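From: lab user (bench 3)
To: helpdesk
Subject: output format question, protein + nickel (II) ion

Hello, I'm new to running complex predictions and I'm not sure whether the block I got back is the full result or only part of it. Here's what I submitted:
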Amino acid sequence: MLFDSHAHYDDEKFNPDREELLDRLFAEGLTGFLNSASDERSSEAALEIVHNRSGAFCSAGVHPHEASNVTSGWERRIESLLNEDKCVALGEIGLDYHYDFSPREVQKEVFRTQMAIAAEKDIPVIIHDREAHADVLEIIREFPSVRGVMHSFSGSAETAEILVSLGWYISFSGSLTFKNAQKTVLAAAAVPIDRLLTETDAPYLAPVPCRGVRNDSGLMKHTVQRLAEIRGKNFEEIASAAANNAYRLFRIAK
Ligand code: NI
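Helpdesk reply: Thanks, we reran it on our side. This is the complete output you should expect:
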């Protein structure tokens, strides 16, 4: 089993060969993927990509980078996409204080609005948190009924343990394989096996030994292998645990 819990196949880097690539990945053993959205347009594009493909699912939501670009009525349009069977999560949402593409107050407002939608619709969320751990945790605590996953986790083992105690899942990407990933490695060792997910964040974050190339779900094996080494398990144990955890979180029937 190999489920990529976070990829962006709506990205223009996949325009030349999107369908052939996905056909090949499934033929080579990919079990499924979740196409994460980043704004209104990509939420619609994500649904288009997955709607006829078995094993493929999507999310809808507004990324913190795009928080200041929302247009009137965006909340209702995201809500209506969330009614689609293939749309299994709200995301990616959160805060990004590394790039600060949107003012922080606007990021927080759009994040809170979407957490409220998730609470009302009882749908899991996908969180993007870059250098904003304290504020993300504060907002998560404001919505105690909402569960979700911290995608491409970059926090400490302590933060991971707090999130797990709140009922959340932690997802590891190719950044776990990078040379400077010591802190992420400690977090990857600390997360209980029934709470970890694996992802590519394709086309970004290609793992070692493929750093710098266009990432896709076929390269997730390097991240799974690294997790297996860190935790003293074999590849299949990690891959199937991560896939089953994703199905449980996103309420996908096997
Ligand atoms: Ni992403």
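A quick orientation on your result: The pocket of nickel (II) ion is lined by residues 6, 8, 36, 92, 201 (CB under 6 Å). Let us know if anything else is unclear.
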